[in-house]
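Researcher: Last one for today. Full complex below.
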Amino acid sequence: MFKLGLWEKALENYELLLTDDVVGEIQYYEDDEGKQRPIDLEPWMKKGNPKVVSVLPSQVSGFVDKFDRTYYERFDKGELTTLTRFYGSQEECLIVSTDSIVYKAIGRLKMGERGISLEELFKDIGFTKRLDWPFTEGYRRHYTDLGTQDFIRNFKARS
Amino acid sequence: MSIGQRLGEAREGLNLTLKQVEDQSKIGISSLSDFENDKREPSVTQLQHLADLYRKPIAYFLDESFVESREAVLWRNKPASPQCELLEAEFRQLARQYHNLESWTKSRPVNSFKNLFVNEPIQSYPEAGKLAERVIREMGLGDYPGAVLYKTLEEVYDVKIFHMDLGGDGTSSACFYDDNYGAVIILNTAHKKWRRNFDLAHELFHLLIWKIRNHSANQCLEGDQEEKFSQHFAGCLLMPAARVKECTESAKDHEGKVSFEKLDDIANLFDVSLDALIWRLKNIYHFTSAEAGEMAGESAFFKRPRKDEEPIYYPDRYIALAKEALRMGEISIGRYLDYLKFIKPTRKDAEKVLSAHVPEPIQVPSDSL
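Model: Here's the assembly. Have a good evening.
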């Protein structure tokens, strides 16, 4: 979003929720020349968007232990805390990622309709240029469907 | 066990003090102490940081059902503590990661290493030599086993072979066998290719007798009987007698002698050092130890540069499985980068892996439930 200059526009249209583990990972973006540009979210966080939440290890294990213990090894901390928060969220929210496993996980959780790709998000704010595969709606649908297939397979195995 | 207890256990397992952990992690001693005494929960970021320091997966601290391999690592010249504990932790982590990738991509080896285990103890040099002949036959290694041993072990028998910097002070290699991870070998990046090849064959012997060997000591010293047999086995495996004799006979001059230059060519052919070849010739031609020692001494003055090969940190198969797991949606980008941390791929590299293969749309049956 920073690279495409869409960050501020996205914040005008959406309320963004980030875990503090994800915030810790956002330090820079690469411009078109491959140069690293620092990102400082502090000014926007002070205004309340994005909102930052903490997720404790005990909350993570509460979520993971219910579904798939291999998630500990498959996800890094940013996705793990995001998914934990997303699953336990009372609010109506969507999850966005370029990580195939995130969409697969929400497919497995039968929450596929709550995923959104960057392509769909950008369309909402008037940006329609072609994006690489991991940012597209097709990518999101593909991996969500793979997760849904897993859910169906496991359901049939249990019944 | 609580998170705190596991943190304490992991730290003590590496013989680290709280002060040392504070210096390396930048987490204060009082916080570390609170975490270990379960007075406070670390953040997930702090927990991951400590997990990385202790060479443990985060699952070790959060998943009560997590079971770690307890098999002792067998060292050839064990490094001193705490280097030894750190290397072993790193070694186990790599083995576990490799195993995870195989599991997530549902990849199965062509042949199981279990089929190669020896059931009767090896009690003499001729028996070690016969074992080498059997292995050459069963694995189909051909006349020049050194050229194909690495690939055969890795791709056909699922032996996990890694290279690490074990230092230049004599630690050559290590191995262990675990019922979940299979056979695992670590070779020293500080050594030349032909030395690593010999170490590989040497570790193979230890693994073949794993189920019947005495595990009371976790290192093999030079004078030990098992160590002598493994050296003999390695020589016989890499330099099959008939082929070596054929090469040596055809290299003889009109006086029936073979120059060091020609011997070095033969050593190169079998992917071993000149020294290793001389000791093999001792067995084949029945020289005395004194004669072989004299030859080896003279050969030390014969130096000819040989092309070395940079060791690959991660096996090709490991990298391929990591990419496959990413494409299948079985591992996150962050974890993928972690699994390949020593070759430092970037997020962009990972996205290229994902973009390289745009799959066909999937049909999810609507009436399936």
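The longest helix of chain B spans residues 83-104. Chain B has four domains: 1-68, 103-238, 241-299, 316-355.
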